[in-house]
Amino acid sequence: MYTYLLFIHIISAVTAICAVIGYPLIMSSVRTAGQARFGLALLEKMAILPKAGGTLLLLTGLALGFLQTYLFHQMWYVVSIAIFFVILVILAILLPSGIKEQLALLQQTQGEALPDEYRRSRRRSAWLEGIANLAVFISNMLMVFKPI
């Protein structure tokens, strides 16, 4: 059972991480309002990946902990779960609200030039995406090397 849960856990992590890494890659090439609308629509569709992968990741991670209860006493395990919740807040709450705000700003835009308000909102989202990527990196490091 442990091996199967671990397999699902790893696949879930890959699914969720691909989306987290993909967000800034998609939006970094946006230069016009039309491209931004398309990119944001794509991000809205991709949002299912971190939600589904993250849910499975949390459930399988906790199940692994219940199968081997000593994990709840390991600092790397507890810190990884805490970091997961930081990532969850960013991906499930903060970024979607930023995407909605950016889409609303683009709906008011005529022409292909990106408005300054959009650029400010996009910088905030890019900053959050960077934090999420750093958190994913740290979480992966903790799970692989189990340093503490």
UniProtKB/TrEMBL annotation:
It holds the Pfam family DUF2269. InterPro entries: DUF2269_transmembrane (IPR018729). Keywords: Membrane, Transmembrane, Transmembrane helix. The chain crosses the membrane at residues 6-26, 47-69, 75-95, 126-145. This is DUF2269 domain-containing protein.
